[in-house]
Write a structure and sequence with these properties.
Oligomer: heterodimer
Order of helices and strands of chain B: HHHHHHHHHHHHHH
Low-confidence stretches of chain B: none
Shape of chain A: globular
Largest sheet of chain A: 7 strands, mixed
Helix content of chain A: 25-40%
Number of strands of chain A: 16
Radius of gyration of chain A: 21 Å
Mean pLDDT of chain A: 89
Chain lengths: 360, 314
């Protein structure tokens, strides 16, 4: 706690927007160093918070062999390059860059340090010493859609998203398709606010979706703000990235939790064993990367059973929400009956399914 | 569109407009004294965390608001000492205050992340505050009425009081005001403190009213909009009020257009990329500024000493 405060204090008085401080978890010259580049503050209760939990899992599992260091609040621009390079110069043998926007920066530094291994989160460009990893967040969205489709009285659902990127498009589509399995007439009103984090705008967007008839709103932005609005109005929503029930004890039906620990430990172990290779990993519920938080008491038993069924289906491979027939917004058949979308198709998706209402 | 829909939309617009109106009124007074304080974003964040922290500690939102005003004012005093005592560059010092306030609020906020406080909502009975019709008048936080009351009060202060006249004199011609015996530095300290307090209250609107929680950088750039709003308003209180609600309306329009698609009635609007809607408030600011300045009003209404350090010839 002391180091945390001192670090934050230096950040405050340093008065430099891009200034980021390196936190050191443990010091021992003989341990292998592993570095992390984080997008937000580790206390954001969302994306970076979850990645930091993964880092702590390495410390817990392999603390006698490795030590971890991290840099937080790293912008997704050229300023990331010297910070990644700095971690390599400090002797890190494995560096995780934990956001999509570090793709080219990671490859640039990786070319300078062929002996250092890199892991880029949610990217698709690899090299001999650059692996990529991602999470099937959309599997969690299918569970949320199942609950929302069954519980919504109006049949009009709200979806508050950030940008039109494949991760969000997959989330919207999985949510809508799962809801329509419960209520074929269900529609999803979509608002993309062009930001991952803007609590007042997230709140206003949630109010607007409610005003347009949505009685359940799910969020694909990072703040708990929308849940607080839903709590005030007596409506329902879901947590994003972490269990946010503390912010909305009644409105929070459940949440998608990002669990990076098992993957991080596995990769750190591979580094220690000398078996690390450049891979492309896209794990989901089966591997425990996507976890559904405990259900709220407001979720009826039959809905819990349906949601658990989806989870079980993903774990044993018998369920995939992206199984045809799937139609796009204009009613064109994109996936034929019985076909399942490939990982390649999922990773590059840019169209919304039928029943999604959006301005663009 | 039912009356209930329109009323609910107005309530959302009021929520978007109120914090920038509060911060804008404070900045207007500061600028009227001849000081340009670009640190509004930092002062709002200081107000947001101080208001939240005091409310979390005492469960008294009124103490929270006082604490928010104090937090914003204290932050503004750092700026005041630098620009008034040491004559540092106002633009650079204001930017530094924004960055400093962001960092310091994050530091204080470390202990408050993940906590919630009761919302500082309407003080009227639920029968009025939650009624789909009556909430148009009674469904707001006391801060909304406070902001609206401050508009005529500020206008009256500037136009009809002796203190307001002195403040304007200091902003228009500091040397003349000094030569007839007024303390330019003293007046500017007071104006900067008022600006800081109002920005702090505006920030607290985010952490105590809209989303009663603390999150780093939760004002998400509204302080900059407040600074732009003062210019947009031509340093006039009435226009500031209209501008704040116009900005609020544009922000709401973006969200409404995206959620509703306009597709049913105006299909061609469906092809407009969402980024265009997001940029709309800023585009409208530029358009309004161009329009106003082309008519020569902006130059005439800006305080003549705005941004210039006061160096009395002794």
């Amino acid at each position: 706690m002391t180091t945390l405060n001192r670090r934050s204090l230096m950040k405050a008085v340093g008065a430099a927007a891009t200034l980021s401080m390196v936190g050191t978890a443990a010091r021992a010259e003989d341990k292998i160093k592993i570095g992390f580049i984080f997008l937000g503050p580790i206390g954001d209760y969302g994306w970076t918070w979850a990645h930091n939990k993964g880092r702590e899992a390495i410390d817990a599992a392999l603390g006698d062999k490795v030590e971890t260091i991290y840099v937080e609040n790293v912008a997704e621009d050229a300023s990331a390059i010297p910070l990644i390079r700095d971690l390599a110069n400090q002797g890190c043998k494995l560096i995780f860059t934990c956001s999509y926007g570090y793709m080219e920066q990671t490859l640039t530094v990786a070319a300078e340090f062929p002996d250092v291994k890199f892991e880029h989160c949610t990217g698709f460009k690899r090299a001999d010493n650059v692996a990529t990893y991602n999470s099937k967040f959309h599997e969690g969205r299918a569970v949320l859609g199942t609950i929302a489709g069954k519980m919504s009285k109006s049949g009009t659902l709200g979806y508050l998203g950030s940008y039109k990127v494949p991760e969000v498009v997959l989330g919207v589509n999985a949510f809508a398709l799962a809801a329509q399995k419960q209520n074929p007439a269900a529609t999803v009103k979509l608002v993309l606010i062009d930001s991952w984090f803007d609590p007042p705008k997230e709140a206003a967007a949630t109010e607007t979706l409610i005003n347009l008839g949505c009685d359940i709103v799910t969020t694909h932005t990072d703040s708990p703000g929308p849940l607080q609005i839903l709590e005030q109005k007596g409506l329902f929503g879901f947590g994003q990235g972490a269990d946010m029930s503390a912010f909305a004890p009644t409105a929070h039906l459940t949440a998608i939790e990002d669990i990076w620990g098992p993957y991080y430990v596995q990769r750190a172990q591979a580094l220690v064993d000398g078996t690390w290779t450049s891979t492309d990993t896209w794990d989901g519920m089966k591997e425990g990367t996507v976890v559904i938080a405990p259900y709220n008491a407001a979720v009826p038993a039959d809905v819990v059973a349906l949601a658990d069924g989806v989870q079980a289906g993903y774990k044993d491979g018998s369920y995939d929400i992206f199984t045809g027939p799937i139609f796009d917004q204009d009613g064109v058949e994109k996936v034929k009956a019985g076909e399942v979308m490939t990982l390649e198709q999922l990773a590059t998706i840019d169209w919304f399914v039928k029943g999604v209402e959006s301005a663009s | 569109m039912s009356p209930e829909f329109i009323i609910a939309a107005i309530v959302t617009v009021v929520g978007l407009a109120t914090p920038i109106l509060l911060a804008g009124l404070g900045e207007l007074i500061t600028e009227k004294s001849g000081v340009l304080n670009l640190g509004v974003e930092g002062m709002m964040l200081m107000g947001a965390i101080c208001g939240f922290a005091a409310t979390a500690a005492t469960f008294n939102p009124w103490l929270g608001i006082l604490s928010a005003a104090a937090g914003g004012a204290i932050a503004s005093m750092l700026f005041a000492v630098l620009v008034l005592q040491l004559n540092s560059n106002q633009v650079a010092t204001g930017l530094a205050l924004s960055i400093f306030g962001t960092g310091l609020s994050s530091l204080i906020g470390n202990a408050f992340t993940g906590r919630i406080v009761p919302q500082f909502g309407s003080i009227f009975p639920d029968a009025l505050a939650k009624d789909p019709i009556w909430k148009l008048l009674f469904g707001y936080s006391p801060l909304v009425y406070f902001a609206l009351a401050m508009v005529p009060l500020t206008a009256w202060f500037l136009k009809s009081t002796r203190a307001g006249l002195i403040l304007r004199a200091v902003g228009e011609n500091d040397h003349s005001a000094h030569s007839i015996g007024y303390s330019v530095t003293g007046v500017r300290y007071a104006a900067i403190a008022f600006g800081g307090a109002m920005a702090g209250i505006g920030g607290a609107y985010f952490s105590m009213v809209i989303t009663p929680m603390w999150a780093e950088k939760m004002t998400a750039g509204r302080g900059w909009i407040a600074v732009a709003l003062v210019v947009f308003a031509g340093w006039r209180t009435g226009r500031l009020l209209a501008g704040a609600y116009f900005f609020g309306f544009l922000m709401w329009l973006e969200l409404f257009a995206k959620a509703n698609g306009f597709g049913n009635s105006l299909p061609f609007l469906q092809d407009i990329p969402s980024q265009v809607w997001a940029a709309m408030p800023y585009v409208m600011t530029i358009a309004a500024l161009t329009l106003i300045s082309s008519r020569g009003n902006v130059g005439a209404s800006a305080p003549a000493c705005l941004g210039k350090p006061f160096l009395p010839s002794t």
